[in-house]
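hiii so um. not sure if this is the right channel but i have a protein structure encoded as tokens and i wanna go backwards to a sequence. like what aa goes where. can anyone help
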């Protein structure tokens, strides 16, 4: 594996400078040049004098592009890590591009301000956004620091992969929020044109195929040859890709089939999978904002609500069918059939059109009432990491044991990388597991994520406190409001750390809580 190539295409710009402020390593461009940016010169000199690292600072500087290495002036975050290598002092600078986030901040703020007269909705929206933004940002910043602290090529490659995945997740969140803001203000544009529907299906297949799990087969079904309709190509592709991406998340093995068929005055599209399935009680919630079927999978819970808005704006219907857990799912939608020569404005939604719901088109859809789409034997999706956690024997108590209750795999990997050298770790994927595993393993300390599925950190802590008043419990929160911090300290926690997690602060809080327990 070419590890230099991996570092070369890492989104973070990495520099290593010595005492003379000479660049002795960079993952973009050439070495041997002097550090010229005045802001960085002052920060690096101070770090050398104090022999200490410095946290992320915001500045504006020239950074080589990822592709052609041509410099561009952008806003960045810069973190500096002081270290001694080969008996020489060095500062490792990790520089992260802020351009896209800052360019979109005005739109984001505008979306928030439009809800100022709806205090409850606004508060809920802000809380969700704070959590969803800080969760991938925690992984990006945490693993960026760890990347500079190891020479192990396998770890570097693993850390780069985590950074890349969470960067994509953060970008998807921003895109979803911007689409949501445009929908609320009525400015989401639709560009109608005549398209070849078979060509669009083939293009979507090529786009999604790289995301399909290795144990899953992707198929597409085309309608009649040379089938042209008038519609918005980009919005139609957006809905199909969103549904297919969701199918990939929940179908680790099996098959995914998508396509379309003409039905009288409309076109019927479907995405059928043999994956995890959806319990009946959750199906009606899927198209609501921030609704997620499985909180252990990445995502914002906005995608399907955006799809619903797009399809209804195009005078169509959207729905879902599933026989339940382990029995696969069928997502479907329809749009009016507009032939070349007609205009979308001539199509109106019937006054008696049914509401978006479940179970429509039962006799016409690829899944029928008596169909059994369950190919998998399991009733729920359990990752290999989860299985390993439950079956892992507890090692002898040579070191203190910490239970980490965290539903996000990337965030757990970050905790593991920070703590594994000093502590034995056990992992609970949600609050309910944390309560059960506390009784079984009796850990010395608990790191408790606040926002988890099935049972949140508050309820889990209340249940654990019924058994133990003394075990230290540190809340881990992605929320940023002072009221959240007050609530944490009033609900049985000994301390808290905020996401993005600072490794030094985390270790300090752990040591402090353990020392207080001993005294």
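sure thing!! here u go:
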């Amino acid at each position: 594996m070419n590890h230099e190539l991996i570092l070369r295409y890492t989104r973070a710009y990495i520099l290593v400078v010595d005492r003379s402020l000479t660049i002795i390593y960079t993952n973009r461009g050439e070495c041997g040049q002097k550090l010229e940016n005045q802001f960085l010169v002052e920060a690096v000199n101070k770090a050398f004098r104090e022999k200490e690292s410095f946290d992320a600072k915001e500045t504006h500087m020239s950074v080589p592009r990822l592709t052609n290495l041509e410099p561009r002036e952008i806003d960045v975050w810069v973190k500096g890590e002081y270290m001694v290598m080969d008996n020489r002092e060095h500062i490792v600078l990790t520089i992260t591009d802020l351009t896209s986030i800052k360019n979109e901040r005005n739109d984001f703020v505008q979306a928030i301000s439009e809800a100022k007269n709806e205090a409850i909705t606004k508060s809920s929206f802000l809380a969700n956004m704070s959590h969803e933004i800080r969760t991938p940002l925690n992984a990006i910043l945490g693993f960026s620091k760890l990347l500079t602290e190891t020479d192990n090529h396998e770890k570097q490659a693993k850390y780069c992969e985590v950074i890349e995945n969470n960067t994509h997740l953060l970008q998807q969140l921003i895109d979803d929020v911007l689409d949501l803001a445009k929908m609320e203000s009525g400015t989401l544009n639709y560009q109608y044109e005549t398209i070849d529907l078979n060509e669009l299906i083939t293009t979507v297949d090529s786009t999604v195929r790289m995301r399909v799990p290795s144990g899953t087969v992707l198929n597409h079904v085309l309608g009649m040859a040379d089938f042209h309709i008038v519609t918005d190509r980009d919005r139609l592709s957006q809905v199909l890709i969103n549904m297919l991406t969701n199918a990939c998340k929940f179908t680790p093995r099996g098959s995914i089939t998508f396509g379309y068929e003409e039905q009288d005055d409309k076109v019927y599209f479907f995405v059928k999978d043999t994956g995890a399935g959806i319990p009946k009680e959750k199906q009606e919630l899927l198209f609501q904002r921030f609704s997620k079927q499985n909180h252990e999978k990445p995502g914002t819970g906005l995608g399907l609500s955006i799809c619903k808005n797009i399809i209804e704006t195009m005078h169509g219907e959207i729905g879902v069918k599933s026989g339940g857990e382990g029995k696969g799912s069928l997502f479907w939608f329809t749009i009016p059939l507009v032939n070349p020569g007609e205009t979308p404005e001539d199509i109106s939604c019937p006054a008696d059109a049914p509401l978006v719901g479940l179970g429509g088109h039962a006799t016409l859809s690829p899944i029928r009432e008596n169909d059994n789409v369950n190919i998998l034997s399991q009733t729920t999706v359990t990752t290999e990491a989860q299985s390993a956690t439950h079956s892992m024997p507890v090692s002898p108590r040579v070191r203190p044991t910490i239970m980490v209750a965290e539903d996000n795999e990337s965030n757990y990997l970050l905790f593991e990388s920070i703590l594994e050298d000093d502590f034995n770790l056990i992992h609970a994927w949600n609050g309910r597991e944390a309560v059960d595993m506390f009784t079984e393993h009796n850990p010395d300390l608990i790191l408790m994520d606040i926002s988890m599925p099935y049972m949140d950190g508050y309820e889990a802590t209340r249940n654990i406190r019924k058994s133990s008043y003394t075990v230290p419990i540190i809340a881990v929160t992605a929320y940023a409001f002072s009221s959240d911090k007050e609530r944490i300290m009033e609900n049985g926690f000994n301390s808290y750390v905020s996401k993005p997690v600072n490794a030094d602060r985390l270790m300090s809080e752990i040591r402090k809580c353990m020392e207080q327990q001993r005294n």
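oh and Confidence is low (pLDDT under 50) at residues 348-397.
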